[in-house]
Each structure stands twice: as structure tokens, then as C-alpha cells.
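Example (one chain per record):
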Amino acid sequence: MTGARPCAVEKRRTRERGGGGGGGGAVSEAAAGGMSGARGAGPALAALLLAASVLSAAVLAPGGSPERDAEAAPPRDLDKKKHVELKMDQALLLIHNELRGTNLTVFWNSERCYHCLFQVLVNVSWSGKPGKPSIAAVAVSTQHGSLLQINDTLEEKEVCRLEYKFGEFGNYSLVVKHAHNGAGEIACDIVVNKKPVDSNLPVCIAFLIGVALIIAVSFLRFLLSLDDFHNWISKAINSRETDRLINSELGSPSRAASIGGDAQPEAWRPPAATTRLRCVDTFRGIALILMVFVNYGGGKYWYFKHSSWNGLTVADLVFPWFVFIMGSSVFLSMTSILQRGCSKFRLLGKIAWRSFLLICIGVVIVNPNYCLGPLSWDKVRIPGVLQRLGVTYFVVAVLELIFAKPVPESCASERSCFSLRDIIFSWPQWLFILMLESIWLALTFFLPVPGCPTGYLGPGGIGDLGKYPNCTGGAAGYIDRLLLGDDHIYQHPSSAVLYHTQVAYDPEGILGSINSIVMAFLGVQAGKILLYYKDQTKDILIRFTAWSCFLGLISVALTKFSENEGFIPINKNLWSVSYVTTLSSFAFFILLILYPIVDVKGLWTGTPFFYPGMNSILVYVGHEVFENYFPFQWKLQDNQSHKEHLTQNIVATAVWVLIAYILYKKKVFWKI
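Predicted structure:
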């Protein structure tokens, strides 16, 4: 989910097909309303979701903003010319130089910047007046811990070094002076002039509102499941509706006769059984809604943005899960189509056309022209999220189509089914996937890259002590620049934030597509488990658990349980093997939770995530196109406030959930 353009964050997408809706009536429907709420609680949940959004807006709405008050007047000993206007995720740091005749240089680095060169923060010269320290003011980042190194400017030697986590809009003083121990030592102390604000408080409030919403809906469903309560609601609704109709149409003998006749309201009937798995659509919807939220800004919190290089944030989760669940859908839908008698040749044409449309839509989305004026063909970005999905879908779908086999009936009905049949029957596909992964490993670790060490996996820039500034991404970046050109790949990689990289790098590049294919095939494996062992819940859950643990152990071995010190670190920009195994492990675990709750026990219908999961392409493209339109965005009173951004992003996301729900009820689905 890397940015697609300088003025907006790049978006994700996923794919899915349509589903069913509902109907309407008069008195009989009113009687059935309570029972339908007990099953899905769709309308009630949609209303509560909007209510929660409004409540979030009310609780988090701009008022007296403590964030801005925190940076109010600077200390009295600070000249007005030195006042620094703080932005979001910044604090004010005043460096007091009390060393007579000594000029200081303050260097800064983030604790998340691995093996990075220190960057000059500010120079603080001696005031020239004994007893009066010189003071310099500077803004420092509060997203992560800061490493500060103070050097003697003339002698170029380190005076002191310290690590500190500043708070947002806090006011701090760093006092550099001689210690009072008579040994001539220098002391560096940080003093809090004004306490910071709790910038995470809006997230906590929004989370509590979400929990309250879940509890309210669960309690409503529990009440509606009680026979006494349901009968009371039904009688009350019937009584009110009947009285209304009698009073309004008392003059109509035919209507009065029909109301007073022997006909009883039509009883509610459960929906017909279907082979479609709601847990798959629900999982897709969870990833999609999470994607919409982080793409709209995620409240401007760092953990809702992509990692600068190694490691994981919330934003790094959604795209791999889309790829994974796309693989599951490929197998399930393809098996269904082939069972209906569709020829493989015709299905191949559909696969090719769908892939082509995904790639074309992706190129259009990642190359908007309303920010920078008319777009030049020389600057068109070629890789992107939908392009990656289109390529991945084509390879995995064609692979499954070539080696497609009928699902063994015994696996769907007998306990004696061979425990590894879902794997053994797919040995040609697994062989192909292992060959692809071997190609990725060979290119990544053995392809010579001019000016860079072979097998380099770093971010370049100031990372690795600045030794390889133009080696961002190693072989992955080199292949993209060689085959596509610098101007046709992403110009603002996330590594530029901390590592100050200067070269273009595309996280949706060519080499990473190999591992996205691998991840999609792991999703295919999940689909095979669901279909091969249909109605055998225990066998399905055992296999989901085994795959989750197996892939998790591979991740532990590759990373050595470290963010940066492993053999192959978890890295979204590279789509490293450990990244794929880790996110696939999470995906199997999520299915392990969703399948019994949603499809087996029916404890949860998947609401509200099920609805956007059923219309994923429309929601994805729509949230891209209408990003800058009301009610998805409006002018904020304080643009440097997390709570205002969070409110806006929550409301925008909730609106898309409501849109998806309305379209589902009207049976409107956009399929490619």
C-alpha cells in the first residue's frame, strides 16, 4: 500500500463476485423483522455503525485543542526569533549550552533507523557571556525514540550521548554543563518544561467505542434469540401495524375483510443453504476495510503507515491478506465453474481478460493527473497494487487450471480420506511454486548489482552507515530500474522517511511478484482444505493450525526472532520470504478463528465486514476515486491534530461500509 501519488497514499484493492439480497412486504414482513435481526442484524448494525461514527466525531471533535496549547509560549529565556512552530508528532527541544568557550553540534537519529548515520540537528555556539548560556530551539520527532549525540564542534569529539522518547507537543530542555563533582566531567540532562499530550488517547476512545458497538450488537442478537423476547417484539409489531392499517383503511371493506381473515403472516424461513463460505468474504472485508482506513490516513499515526524498511505495521498487513484470500477464491470459484461444465479454454479466456482489466485499472489509478497537471508518458508508473494482483491472479489461476482435478467425493463425505491428499494431489503446482521461490532466492542473493554488495537487502541512503546510498532494495530495485527505468517506478518509497534514500524504488516491483504468487498459492491451499474436507470441521481446523504453526516456525528461523538481525528480515518493500510466511501464518490463524464462528456455529454472520467483502472492487475503486470528496474528506479546524484526522478517517470508512451494505441489499455487485 505504497503511495501512488505525491498528494495521496497509494491504495489497495481486492476482488470478489456478487451475492444475494432480500425482499419486502407489509404486515408479514413487520412480523419477520425481529427474527431477521436475530440472524444478521444487518440494518441495526449499519445504523449502529453510523451512530458510532457520529459518536466518535462528537467525542473526538475539535474543541480546546491541548495539542496546540502544549506548544504555547516558549520559556522566558528563549528569544521569540527562536520559537519553533510544532507539527504533528513533534516536540520542542531547547538545547542549553553552558560550556564556556565551547561550540556544540547536536546530532540526531531515530532508534528505528538501523545502522544509520547521525544527522546534524542543530549547532549551538557559546554565547560569549559568562554565566549566560546560549539556547537553540529545534523540533524533534516523537514517533519513535531519539538518539542524541552532542559533539564539541571544534575538536570533533563526542561530549555525551543519550537516548530519550519525546512526547507529542511536549516542551523539553537539554542542558549541557560541567558536572559539580570537580572532576571536569560534562553532564547532559533533559528537563521537561511542559508535559506532552497523550496522542494515542483518540485511538483508545475509538477502540472503546468499537468494543461498545460489538457488545451492543451481541446483546441485541442475544435478546432476539430468546423466544419470549422475540414473541413479545413480534406481537407488539403486529399489534401496532394492524391498528395502523385498520385505522387508515377502515372505509375499505375488502381491505378490512382481508385483515380480519384467517390468513396468517408468512413465517420467517432461514435462507437456503449455499456453498459460498462467508468466512472467506468476511476475511476479505476485514482486509478491505482496514485498507480503506489506512489509505485515508489512519489518523496520521505511524503504526497505520508502512514500515520504513524492516518490520511490520498495521498497514503492512492488508495487501498480503488480499493476495492470500484471492488465492482461496481462485480455487473455490474455479472448481465451481468447472463443475458446471465450463470448458478450460473458455475459462482461460476469462482469466486472461480479468487479469488484463485489473492491470489496466491499476495503471489508471496509480497515475492520476489532478495533482500535478497533465501526465507525461515519460513519467507513467507501471507497477502498482492492482497490477501486482492482476499478474498474481493470472499465474495462480492458469496454474490451477492446467492441473485442475475433480475434488474427490470421498474427501467430502468420508473420514478415511488420506490426510495429505490436498497436498499430494497438487504436487505439480507445488513443484512450480518451489521453482519460482528458488528463482527469487537466486536473483536476490546472487545477482551482481553494480556498486552494491551481492545479496544486499538494505534500504540504502544513510542506512548501513551510508556505505551504499544508491543500493535501495538490492537486486529487486536494480531489476526494476534496469527493465522499467527510474521514471516508471515509484518515486517516494517509505524508506525515504528515515533512511533518506534518493533513488526510486517500487515495493510492487517485478521481483516481489514472485513471492506474491507464492502467497496466493498458500491461499489456494487454504481453499483446498475448505473444499476437500468440507463438513469435516475438525480436520479443517487441524490443518489450519498446522499450516499456521509451520509457516510461523519458518519465519522464526529466517528472522531469528529479530527485526533486523535475521537471515531474511520481514520486509514489505522486498516482499521477502519471511514476510510471506509470517503474513500467511497470520492468515491461516484468522481463518482458524473465522471458519468455526461464521460458517460452522453461525455465532457471527461476518457483519459488517461481509458486505464490503462481497463488493470489494467497487469499494476499492470508489474509495480511490472519491477520496477527496465530502463526506470522505473535509477541511479540518486543526490540521495538526491526530483526533481530527482520526475522526475523519473513521467516518469515511464507516460510510463505505454503509454503501456496501446498501448495494448488497439492492443486489448491486461490480464484477470483472
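Caption: DSSP finds 21 helices and eight strands in the chain.
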